[in-house]
């Protein structure tokens, strides 16, 4: 039966399904209720108020994503005989879902070039091998990669280890997702995160939701959007695809919504993929034509407004319509809604950042907010919808190639550590250096670096060129089967709710919360902090100011973080107070921003030409399904798009006809970078004609390594492809 709304009774049934997988619904419920932060998105749930409680204290806040992650961590361990019975070549044949479903990693594993299988090794063997290799390798011949799954404490400690070892090749998964948000916001408001708290979102009368699908990827936001709609507010969705959950969603915890459904989008605009920047400038032009610009705000609280207003006037409607794919009349109708708004929030996800002009997109959103004074007061502001639960915290505690000056100075002055001053490489630059042989060793704290990379053929070659790669994970992923280094070591680590001591995470609303940890479910895995501290002691044992035994305690690390990371002072006492807190200096309820002069900055841009306009071309964007989180695929089906498989390219019926194809005909999808054969070309009338969808990470083979020059974020959206009938 075709799914016509998100959530609903299917979501309730799904709870029982996952409960059975976890060994019982009550067992899953108890796991979800522990005082630990949610393991999936950064919207924020859990902590000292208990699981399934959001930052406003609302309960029961829960979604399929959080249950999927929890049940994955409740899997039994992988039998050590599995590695003898299944070769690397057999692992390569498994899908992302099949690899995830093998079970929990419970033994350290090693692969050496020339072997056909992984071998189980002891922790002692693993530590000795890693320490020997790092000791024999120049620091700048290594890179250190961090996912957003880990805690603030593990992130801080590993970046400290990398730097005292001697390199600034310290980077995180944000470079492949929201780095454009951070750079764009920093250049506009002097802070790289959301300017609002959750309560502001629910008080807004207008919400722009641009380039995202939170119904699938951040489901708990749907409750807040429901409250906006019930209060008479508008939700304006800008997306080339009409997503089922953004049209209608049934909130399982709300009886009225569950039974009757909630209309989420009050208005839906479908630009071409890559047309967002032109559309945003068009909204600014239409808003100015309506006389709705807040000139007093621009004069008093921003810089660059004179140049920006002139650029708005100079822009022609012909250019706007051609490059956005949206008619002037439709843009003007949305501008009228914005002009009537008293409190507006602008939210976006990777449909905005995954472009070669991602930073420009974010700056244009900030421009639009400045234009009507919709940032710097309650109920208004800018909200990048962050992905993994602690991706923002990992960046806050210093996981960037260049440390913030305040952190750099404080580490030297307060703790006496010596830090390198050489420029570090971003994630893609580290991959390029691995491919060229410049970098010889990689170390990955969680995540799937292979699976998250553009141009997966290149990613395989780059990672395979390493002399050693170390990966700390809870479960298997495609990065454990593809792109194996000459020596690859996989270290099994504990999940967040199994840590022996409390850790902290940061939500996208700049809210730091404590996770209590809990008993380990399986023997074998170790805490991330203990592993990093042990390696530090083995690789750089005698450093002034650094006691690795003491730093094996997360509470000690929190004292370091509180002393050196701006806005994080309260973390030093969180063990005693149990008080979760908002980071100082990031929420802007007054129009004084984080820039040097306290004023917001408006930016002017050149609108990029729309790509893929040839008759034999389509504009492709890679997307996640409803049954996955980041690179982790939990289910083959994509429920809300009514797809039962993933080897698809979803295109408009008019495009099927244009290419002379039948529905579900097999094609080769070809880009400038690679090709995928045996793909089903499937009719999908919810997408704007001229555009197409394929699933990430499988389709990464088609994505070029073109990156936004300012943020170094690859352009996973707007890939020009052609279809060749098989």
From TrEMBL:
One of the Pfam families matching this protein, by short name: Molydop_binding
Alphabetized UniProt keyword annotations: Iron, Iron-sulfur, Metal-binding
Domain Molybdopterin dinucleotide-binding: residue ranges: 618-719
Ranges for domain Molybdopterin oxidoreductase: 104-482
Membrane-spanning residues: none
Residue ranges of coiled coil: none
Cross-referenced InterPro entries: Asp_de-COase-like_dom_sf, MopB_CT_YdeP, MoPterin_dinucl-bd_dom, Mopterin_OxRdtase, Mopterin_OxRdtse_a_bac, Prok_molybdopt-oxidoreductase
Annotated protein name in UniProt: Formate dehydrogenase H
């Amino acid at each position: 039966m075709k799914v016509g709304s998100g959530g609903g009774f299917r979501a309730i049934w799904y709870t029982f399904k996952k409960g059975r997988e976890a060994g019982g619904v009550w067992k899953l419920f108890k796991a979800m209720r522990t005082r630990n932060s949610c393991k999936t998105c950064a919207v924020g749930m859990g902590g000292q108020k208990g699981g399934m409680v959001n930052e406003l204290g609302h309960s029961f806040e829960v979604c399929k994503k959080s249950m999927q992650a929890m049940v994955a961590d409740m899997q039994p361990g992988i039998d050590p005989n599995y590695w003898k019975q299944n070769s690397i070549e057999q692992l390569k044949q498994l899908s992302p879902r099949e690899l995830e479903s093998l079970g929990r990693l419970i033994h350290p594993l090693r692969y050496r070039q020339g072997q056909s299988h992984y071998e189980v090794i002891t922790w002692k063997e693993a530590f000795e091998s890693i320490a020997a290799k790092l000791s024999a390798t120049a620091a700048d011949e290594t890179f250190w990669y961090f996912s957003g799954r880990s805690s603030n404490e593990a992130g801080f400690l590993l970046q400290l280890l990398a730097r005292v070892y001697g390199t600034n090749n310290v980077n995180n998964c944000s470079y492949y997702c929201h780095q454009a948000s951070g750079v764009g916001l920093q250049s506009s408001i002097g802070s790289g995160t959301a300017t609002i708290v959750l309560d502001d979102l629910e008080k807004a009368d207008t919400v722009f939701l641009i380039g995202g699908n939170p119904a699938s990827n951040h489901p708990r936001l749907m409750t807040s959007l429901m409250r906006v709609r019930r209060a008479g507010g508008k939700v304006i969705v800008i997306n080339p695809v009409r997503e089922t959950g953004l049209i209608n969603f049934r909130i399982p915890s709300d009886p009225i919504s569950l039974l009757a459904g909630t209309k989420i989008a009050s208005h839906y605009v479908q630009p071409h993929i890559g047309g967002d920047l032109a559309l945003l400038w068009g909204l600014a032009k239409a808003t100015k034509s309506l006389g709705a610009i807040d000139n007093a705000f621009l004069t008093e609280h921003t810089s660059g407004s004179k140049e920006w207003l002139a650029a708005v006037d100079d822009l022609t409607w012909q250019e706007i319509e051609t490059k956005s794919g949206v008619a002037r009349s439709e843009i003007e109708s949305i501008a009228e809604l914005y002009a009537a708004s008293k409190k507006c929030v602008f939210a976006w996800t990777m449909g905005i950042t995954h472009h070669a002009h991602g930073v420009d997109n974010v700056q244009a959103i900030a421009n639009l907010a400045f234009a009507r004074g919709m940032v710097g007061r309650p109920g208004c502001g800018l909200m990048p919808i962050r992905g993994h639960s602690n991706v923002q915290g990992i960046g806050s505690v210093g996981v960037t190639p260049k440390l913030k000056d305040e952190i750099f100075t404080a580490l030297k002055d307060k703790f006496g550590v010596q830090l390198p001053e050489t420029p570090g490489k971003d994630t893609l630059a580290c991959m390029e250096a691995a491919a060229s042989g410049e970098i010889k060793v990689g170390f990955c704290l969680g995540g799937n670096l292979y699976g998250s990379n553009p141009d997966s053929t290149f990613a395989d070659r780059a990672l395979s060129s390493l002399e050693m790669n170390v990966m700390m994970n809870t479960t298997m992923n495609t990065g454990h089967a593809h792109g194996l280094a000459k020596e690859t070591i996989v270290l099994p680590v504990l999940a967040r709710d199994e840590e022996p001591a409390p850790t902290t995470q940061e939500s996208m609303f700049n809210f730091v919360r404590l996770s209590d940890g809990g008993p380990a479910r399986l023997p074998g895995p170790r805490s991330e902090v203990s592993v990093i501290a042990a390696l530090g002691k083995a690789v750089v044992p005698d450093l002034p100011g650094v006691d690795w035994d003491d730093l094996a305690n997360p509470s000690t690390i929190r004292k370091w973080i509180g002393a050196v990371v701006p806005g994080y002072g309260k973390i030093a006492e969180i063990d005693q107070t149990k008080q979760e807190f908002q980071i100082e200096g990031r929420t802007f309820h007054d129009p004084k921003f984080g820039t040097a002069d306290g004023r917001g900055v408006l930016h002017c841009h050149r609108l990029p030409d729309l790509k893929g306009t040839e008759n034999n071309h389509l504009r492709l964007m890679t997307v996640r399904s409803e049954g996955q989180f980041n690179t982790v695929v939990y289910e083959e089906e994509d429920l809300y798009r009514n797809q039962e498989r993933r080897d698809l390219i979803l295109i408009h019926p008019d495009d099927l006809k244009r290419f002379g194809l039948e529905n579900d005909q097999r094609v080769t999808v070809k880009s400038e970078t690679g090709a995928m054969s045996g793909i089903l070309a499937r009719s999908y009338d919810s997408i704007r004609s001229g555009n197409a969808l394929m699933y990430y990470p499988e389709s990464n083979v088609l994505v070029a390594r073109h990156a936004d020059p300012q943020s170094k974020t690859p352009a996973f959206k707007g890939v020009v492809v052609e279809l060749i009938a098989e």
